[in-house]
Specification:
single chain; mainly beta; 7-stranded mixed beta sheet; globular
């Protein structure tokens, strides 16, 4: 069993930055491919970014490329999402997702609100 805990969300203004953290407990974290998703009110959950087990490969949604950076520190069992140049359309609940083999886990989410 893996428990994921997101933190770092908050209320910011357009152009500000935030760093989200996803802390994991349980199994060997480096086995897990980790992704961030987000869900805005009235919209479906959408992919934001992902990182492979040892951080070699990363992927980003087009909407966040050049503004968001994903990274991980397996020694701390934590994945980060550095979000720069935040825009009102980035407002959403951000969720951490971890996958390995047949296992998949979700965190409870952290709210990010960007005011214009």
């Amino acid at each position: 069993q893996v428990q994921l805990t997101e933190s770092g969300g908050g209320l910011v203004q357009t152009g500000d930055s935030l760093r989200l953290s996803c802390a994991a407990s349980g199994r060997t974290f480096s086995n897990f491919h980790v992704a961030w998703f987000r869900q805005a009110p009235g919209k479906e959950r959408e992919f934001v970014s992902a990182v492979s087990g040892f951080g070699v490969n990363t992927d980003y949604a087009d909407s966040v490329k050049g503004r968001f950076t994903i990274s991980r520190d397996n020694a701390k069992n934590t994945v980060y999402l550095q979000m720069n140049s935040l825009q009102p359309e980035d407002t959403a609940v951000y969720y951490c997702n971890a996958k390995a083999f047949l296992f998949e886990y979700w965190g409870q989410g952290t709210q990010v609100t960007v005011s214009s």
